[in-house]
Write a structure and sequence with these properties.
- The protein is an alpha+beta fold and about 80 residues long.
- The chain has one domain: C-terminal domain of ProRS (Translation Initiation Factor IF3), CATH 3.30.110.30.
- Helices cover about 35% and strands about 30% of the residues.
- The radius of gyration is 12 Å and the shape is globular.
Length: about 80
């Protein structure tokens, strides 16, 4: 679990999302509004896709706002870019 946890970066804004994606490896933990439309737009703009929707409450966290759309989010998901 330490290896996994050390390779997950939490972000709260779209700018942070793009910055981490360009300058770091591993997974990005970010709020997502749950829509296929938002997921597709994120993929088009960054090539990042959702890799995991955690069941673990610690990883998922509490409700927030989607980093892309600003709409309500039930919790965080893990994004990554395929290389």
């Amino acid at each position: 679990m330490n290896h996994r946890d050390n390779h997950i970066t939490n972000v709260n804004t779209w700018d942070e999302f793009k910055e981490v994606l360009e300058n770091k490896t591993g997974f990005i933990s970010a709020h997502w509004d749950g829509t296929a439309e938002t997921e597709e737009k994120i993929k088009e703009e960054t090539k990042a896709t959702i890799r995991c929707i955690p069941f673990d409450k610690e990883l998922r966290g509490s409700a927030g706002k989607c980093v892309y759309s600003g709409k309500p989010s039930e919790g965080r998901v893990l994004f990554a870019k395929a290389y």
